[in-house]
TrEMBL record:
Keyword Transcription applies: yes
Family statement drawn from the similarity comment of this UniProt entry: In the C-terminal section; belongs to the class-I pyridoxal-phosphate-dependent aminotransferase family.
Lineage of origin: Bacteria, Bacillati, Bacillota, Bacilli, Bacillales
GO MF term list: DNA binding; DNA-binding transcription factor activity; pyridoxal phosphate binding; transaminase activity
Known cofactor(s): pyridoxal 5'-phosphate
UniProt name for this protein: GntR family transcriptional regulator
Species assigned in the record: Paenibacillus solani
Length: 450
């Protein structure tokens, strides 16, 4: 049975093909279509966004949606045709577009003089001051002069992998698996990479100590909370031990806390809060909570590394875009960010809870999977004879996209035996159907390969 979203998309395509909506002409208003299909305006907006992504229609602010001129109407992918468990981009209707649009307009007015020049490479002070208040709420106590605004967390990783750190260590130590974007930055910097295995229980702390003791490590890159791709989190005791080893062996840690806003446990302190020796570099991305296109991130740096980092930052782009900085500052100062993160925290907690319930029903004990408390990632371990690349291709043919975990691993650790499911861009109503197809294909391939 078609969803309302799919019915609206199909109706609009028929109207266009029948010539009832001509190129350059306006589509029915969101409110009109909502009444026509007895649905919420948000459902209509999602349907229109599906058409917009296919370049069939385009929006005009304060006016509505219009049919693109000279555009032939090709079949449009609806939600039932493609389920994207690979994308890490939040759904468009779940991002604060209208609020950020208002903040951007206000930033143009507030910072119009700065648009004619360059701003502080460290970031405008008023934003760093707001970030300082935000971090305090996360048990991260820093000062504005230790915070650097970056053009997305990826810029921070690019700079840090190129930076000369105190000591003789040249290699970066990474969890296996880990975020593939960091691996790309380290490779581009020509930085030697060493892996340490991480599973649902964490890492072997004795192995970590051996790496730290070797003197070869420039820094340890870690995602303690909601690891991409496993979705798992370190215990407090593990984080305390990691911080203690960093102090003992004088090794820096780069803590990627990209999903701190989804944390429900108020006692789940980041590594930075447990560091008494200034060895933790804290990196926060805002791409998963507000518009990714703003390219905003922040880094808290130990004093010995701050000037070196800012010199590299200045060489990279002089300063981060003033409008993005101003919009984020206004968004945070107004309280909108706090309200938005409270909303998405509750949303993803319930979404993950439901996804894990579906996993239990659909995958059972035959297909092991991770069980995060929140976040957006679940990893499946495939049966012995089933290869991740083969199941990925088979699922793609059935309109389901997943990620091979080998993308997150160094070549020597790739076994082609796991897939990652990301629930950030799919609706609850799609999860059970998608997971059922995934289970069917895995079990079918297992039977054929035995």
């Amino acid at each position: 049975m078609e969803t309302k979203h799919e019915q609206i998309v199909a109706f609009m395509i028929r109207e266009m093909e029948g010539g009832h909506i001509r190129p350059g002409h306006k589509l029915p208003s969101v409110r009109t279509v909502a009444k026509m299909f007895s649905c919420s305006p948000n459902t209509v907006v999602r349907a229109y966004q599906s058409l917009e992504r296919e370049d069939v229609i385009y929006p005009v602010p304060k006016s509505g949606y219009y049919l693109v001129e000279g555009k032939s109407i090709a079949p449009v992918r609806t939600e039932s045709m493609t389920l994207d468990f690979a994308s890490t981009t939040p759904r468009g209707d779940f991002l604060p577009f209208r609020e950020m649009e208002h903040c951007l307009r206000k930033a143009i007015s507030l910072y119009k003089e700065e648009l004619f020049g360059y701003t502080d490479p460290q970031g405008i002070f008023s934003l760093r001051n707001e970030l300082c208040k935000y971090f305090h709420e996360q048990q991260i106590f820093s000062k504005p002069d230790r915070i650097a605004v970056v053009t997305g967390a990826q810029q921070a990783f690019s700079i840090l992998t190129r930076l000369s750190f105190p000591g003789r260590g040249q290699a970066v130590l990474v969890e296996q698996p880990t975020y593939f974007g960091f691996l790309a930055a380290a490779r581009a910097a020509g930085c030697p990479i060493i892996g340490i295995e991480r599973d649902e229980q964490g890492i072997d702390l004795e192995v970590l100590e051996a790496h730290f003791r070797s003197g070869c490590i420039k820094f340890f890159y870690t995602i303690p909370r909601f690891l991409n791709p496993l979705g798992t989190t370190y215990t407090l005791e593990q984080k305390q031990r990691i911080a203690e080893l960093a102090r003992q062996y004088d090794v820096y840690i780069v803590e990627d806390d990209y999903l701190v806003d989804l944390e429900d446990d108020t006692k789940a302190d980041p590594l930075y809060a447990l560091d008494s020796s200034n060895h933790v570099i804290y990196v926060k991305s805002f791409s998963k909570t507000i518009l990714p296109g703003l390219r905003m991130g922040a880094v808290i740096l130990p004093e010995p590394l701050l000037d070196l980092f800012l010199a590299q930052k200045h060489a990279a782009d002089v300063s981060s875009p003033i409008l993005s900085q101003g919009a984020l500052e206004i968004y945070m100062k107004s309280g909108l960010y706090r309200r938005h993160t409270a909303r998405i925290r509750a949303h993803y907690r319930e979404k993950m809870r439901y996804a894990i319930e579906v996993c239990a029903d659909v995958f059972g004990s035959g297909i092991p999977y991770t069980c995060p408390s929140s976040g957006v990632f679940i990893t499946l371990w495939l049966p012995k004879y089933v290869k991740a690349s083969a199941i990925q291709e088979r699922l793609k043919q059935r309109g389901i996209l997943v990620t091979n975990v080998d993308l997150h691993l160094l070549p020597e650790n790739q076994h082609n035996d796991r897939i990652r499911l990301c629930i950030i861009g799919v609706e609850n109503s799609q999860i059970e159907g998608g997971f059922t197809v995934i289970a069917e294909e895995i079990r079918s391939m297992e039977r054929r390969m035995r």
